[in-house]
Design a protein that fits this description.
Blueprint lengths: L2 H7 L4 H10 L4 H4 L5 H10 L18 H4 L4 E6 L6 H11 L3 E5 L2 H13 L4 E4 L4 E2 L6 E5 L8 E7 L11 H10 L1 E9 L4 H9 L4 E6 L6 E3 L14 E4 L3 H13 L4 E5 L5 H12 L5 E6 L13 E4 L3 E3 L4 E3 L2 H8 L12 E5 L5 H9 L8 E3 L3 H10 L5 H11 L6 E3 L3 H10 L6 H9 L7 H17 L19 H23 L7 H21 L14 H11 L6 H7 L1
Parallel strand pairs: 1-7, 1-8, 2-5, 2-6, 3-5, 6-7, 9-16, 10-12, 10-13, 11-12, 13-16, 17-18
Antiparallel strand pairs: 3-4, 14-15
Helix pairs in contact: 2-14, 11-20, 15-16, 16-17, 18-19, 19-20, 20-21
């Protein structure tokens, strides 16, 4: 019986289909029911021998047949921070009969969902760790990794498209750009992305229109440094690049006795970052100065008068380096938000030696983005694994990526973190797809507690098929941190709980304690917030809380939740 007939009749299972692909030479007549005309032309043009090279990734636009059936109208909105480009794209989304917003952060996805729902446009929220469905909604706001490339929309928006050049997440933006099936596609970002987007879309036959934007409010680079810390004023944001330095600067500013500080940095829970930003923006709050990392570069609406760089160097996980032009411009651009109480933004440094780099960066265009990230789909890896007769993911990934063929417009996304997780899950009796899911999870491989959490989740899933939270957590009490190390541990516990919630959406009934994990996660956030409030210096030596400790303790006691991650509990005995 012909292979295509078996496939049409559903006589072959999914796994058998992969085996058939690699063991049979398919004719054009066999292929025709399986692929659209574009894919067939690709097959004929590139595989005349009848053998399919699964490592050939030179035509990734053909991975998305639904999108290729449309002639999309693509509108590229490009300009600096605070130029109104995303605002205009969202107006089109709001006016459409159906649509999706794809953003780089959960905070942005939530902000857009709330905006649309407030405008009486029902909008679902979908992120790795959140699902909020609104009755009758034909719009969705998602993190870019969650973009659905099978659903048809009238309008789609991709925000911060310059992240196609990100070495780790660029592949997700490329997937959305090539794969979203919409009549209109609005793409927002830095002008440096224009050439690569134009080249990628040449192959899709889409119609591309470019609209350039100018900044809506002035940004003034100051000629002098901050000088004394006594010159700090309400609305200032001090930027540095490590948790320890953030708290050192916060203490130094507050010891002057004039200001209290909110803090924002990447490893804070998103809920905590939002609350810290809200308190900074609130005129009635005592927290009128912000100390932050580059986490403020996107995702938070902040009323900042002046950005002050404590340094223009950061450790990027590999080495300590100078900030790039795009990084400096993205952070500096958060000063002087249009429509805020600070209509003119200012930017300066602590160190006079940094001023030349700051000034030159703000005058310079961002370097042109030359290539976009790409990563093989699970289907390609699955077939490739059968071809080599193994379900060990680590060697399959290494071998595939070593042999992968790309066009000059693409690069393979950095998968070092994925390989580290693959080495862990390859030790377990798991199906290849399950291993792949664990490797895609948002685990922080540089955090020992996070890795311990993932390992225990994977081991329990492999052994029992069901992972209960009580098997990972021991009875005890979560307490407000009193030291930086305890704060860091609590942030790690929060990451483990987020990981459980993420896995619960991928493995359904196998992770049944999603609500418990979400509740624990909220408790972690509240305890971290209380730590931040307690750490604020008061001139009279008395601390003022936005939430009373007693109320917080009551909320915690009533929850009857379990305590710290087992490894922490055992170390503390």
């Amino acid at each position: 019986m012909a292979v295509a007939a078996l496939l049409r009749r559903g006589a072959l299972s999914s796994s058998c289909r992969h085996d058939v692909y690699i063991r049979c030479l398919l004719s054009d007549s066999d292929l025709h029911p399986l692929v659209n005309s574009a894919n067939l032309r690709f097959w004929r043009g590139n595989h005349n021998s009848g053998k399919f090279d699964f490592t050939d990734m030179t035509h990734p636009h053909l991975w998305y047949p639904n999108a290729r059936e449309k002639k999309r109208n693509v509108f590229l909105h490009v300009g600096p921070t605070n130029s109104g480009k995303t605002h205009n794209a969202l107006k089109r989304l709001e006016a459409s009969s159906s649509g999706v917003y794809c953003g780089p952060l959960r905070l942005l996805a939530r902000e857009v969902a709330e905006r649309l729902n407030k405008a009486s446009v029902p909008c679902n929220l979908t992120t790795g760790q959140e699902r909020e469905e609104i009755e009758g909604a034909k719009h969705s706001s998602v993190t870019v990794e969650m973009a659905d490339v099978t659903t048809e929309y009238q309008c789609a928006v991709i925000d911060e498209i310059q992240m196609v050049g990100c070495r780790t997440r660029g592949c997700s933006f490329t997937r959305a750009l090539l794969g979203l099936c919409s009549d209109e596609l609005h793409v927002c970002g830095d002008p440096a992305v224009v050439p690569i987007v134009q080249r990628l879309l040449e192959a899709t036959d889409d119609v591309v229109t470019i609209q350039y934007y100018e900044r809506l409010s002035p940004l003034v680079p100051l000629k002098s440094t901050l000088g004394s810390f006594s010159n700090i004023k309400a609305g200032d944001c001090m930027v540095t690049f490590s948790r320890r330095e953030i708290y050192k600067l916060k203490k130094k500013i507050e010891m002057a006795g004039k200001h209290l500080c909110s803090v924002v940095y990447g490893s804070l829970p998103p809920e905590t970052r939002t609350k810290q930003a809200t308190m900074f923006n609130d005129d009635a709050s005592d927290l009128n100065v912000l100390v932050a990392s580059d986490a403020i570069g996107m995702g938070l609406n902040l009323n900042i008068s002046r950005i002050i760089f404590s340094t223009l160097k950061k450790f990027d996980g590999i080495c300590t380096r100078e900030l790039t032009v795009p990084e400096i411009k993205q952070i500096a651009g958060r000063a002087g938000r249009y429509g805020s109480k600070f209509p003119v933004g200012e930017v300066t440094c602590l160190d006079a030696e940094d001023l030349p780099l700051l000034h030159s960066s703000l005058k310079s265009p961002s370097p042109i983005i030359e290539r976009a990230g790409l990563f093989p789909t699970f289907d390609l890896l699955s077939v490739y694994s059968r071809l080599h007769g193994t379900d060990f993911l680590h060697p399959i990934l290494e071998r595939f990526l070593d042999k992968a063929k790309l066009s000059p417009d693409y690069f393979i996304a950095d998968c070092e973190d994925m390989l580290k997780v693959a080495a862990i899950v390859d030790e377990l009796p798991l199906a290849l797809h399950d291993k792949y899911v664990f490797c895609q999870s948002p685990v922080d491989v540089r955090d020992d507690i996070s890795i311990q959490g993932l390992t225990q989740f994977a081991e329990n899933y492999a052994k029992k098929g069901t992972v209960r939270l009580k098997e990972i957590f021991t009875p005890g009490t979560l307490r407000v941190p009193t030291t930086h190390n305890q704060l860091q541990e609590l942030e790690s516990v929060h990451k483990v709980l987020e990981l459980y919630v993420w896995l619960s959406y991928r493995f359904d009934d196998s992770f049944p304690d999603r609500e418990l994990a979400a509740s624990q996660k909220s408790i972690c956030s509240m305890l971290i917030e209380e730590y931040l409030e307690r750490s604020g210096w008061q001139p009279q030596g008395q601390r003022r809380f936005l939430h009373t400790p007693r109320k917080l303790r009551q909320e915690y006691d009533a929850s009857q939740l379990r305590g710290y991650f087992r490894e922490i509990d055992e170390r503390s005995k």
